[in-house]
From TrEMBL:
Function in brief: High affinity receptor for urotensin-2 and urotensin-2B. The activity of this receptor is mediated by a G-protein that activate a phosphatidylinositol-calcium second messenger system.
Protein name: Urotensin-2 receptor
Source lineage: Eukaryota, Metazoa, Chordata, Craniata, Vertebrata
Alphabetical list of Pfam families matching this protein: 7tm_1 (PF00001)
The G-protein coupled receptors family 1 profile domain, residue ranges: 33-288
Source organism per UniProt: Apteryx owenii
Entries under InterPro entries matching the protein: GPCR_Rhodpsn, GPCR_Rhodpsn_7TM, Urot_II_rcpt
Residues forming coiled coils: none
Chain ranges passing through the membrane: 20-41, 53-80, 92-114, 135-157, 177-200, 227-248, 268-291
Subcellular compartments: Cell membrane
Family: Belongs to the G-protein coupled receptor 1 family.
Region (Disordered) residue spans: 300-323
Amino acid sequence: MLRLYISHTESDSTVTGPLSAMLLVMCLIGMVGNIYTLVVASGRVAGRSVGSLGVYVINLALADFLYLSTIPFVVCTYFAHDWFFGDVGCRLLLSLDLLTMHASIFLLTAMSLERYWAVTRPLRARQAGNTYRKLASAILWLLSLLLTAPMMAMIQLRDQGGHYKRICFPTWTPAAFRLYLTVLFATSVLVPGLVLGVVYTRLARAYRASASGLGPPTTGRASSQKLFSRIFGIIVAYWACFLPFWAWQLTRLYRDEGLGLGPTAQAYLNFGVTCLAYGNSCINPFLYTLLTRSYRQSPGRSGRGPLEPWAPSRGVTQGTVGGNSASLVFKELSRSTGESGEGLEQR
């Protein structure tokens, strides 16, 4: 993480061993899990479809894999008290942290928006193919790269002597650096958080309206709600792991004295939020597995076609959700959810 490369202190040595061991275990587990996710989501037969969310899952797993790949460099730096990877390594590795962080939340937001459109505009949502999703993913990666470019340009390797011989350090003024990190906090947490808050609030209203108008929940609606809840769980895990990191970074930037803690306490807190941030990429493969399992449990997998929603009265069917009848919404969502699982299941 950013703080690891920029502000080492001698008190960090007190927790170097335990931290390094924990990070290496997380790296091993997380990289194996994400490789497995990439293999499963991509399909074991060349050219096989990956389903509607498969493209996003592949990109999310790739972002997590790249993020975890920085751990060995972090551990090496702590044990050696030096940076062996040159100026180019400074620029690439610090930028990779920010790049993958933004790519992850942008992809999660895109995935949530697509599921939202599957409910509110099911006919139009079904017309979007994997080519569209691949293009959207590429654009999101490019946007993440653009946000990361200033860090890549303004970081350099400095020889400072003392406990740590060489460290990566920003060349811009403290005020400019604070502004840049504040912008990154807004783009990686605040803005996506507002978008996702609106999306899931509207989804909750749509489900509540459909539940009150369509009678007992059908298999199609229940599995669709499970799909949304699991996507939301991945988003909550992201926030739970990265909000403490950002809170600590911004506190150190805007308050020179931090939280009034001693050097050793600050070292433990710094390493704690670092492990939490890396932990997100470690647990995500398990969350992705639950997500793909919800595809396999969705209607339309049994060969009998999508399940029909509960037959409501005529008065109820006149109600709309996002401009479409509630009956049509969940009939189409059941069908699209069932079809989206085809690629991940067939391997």
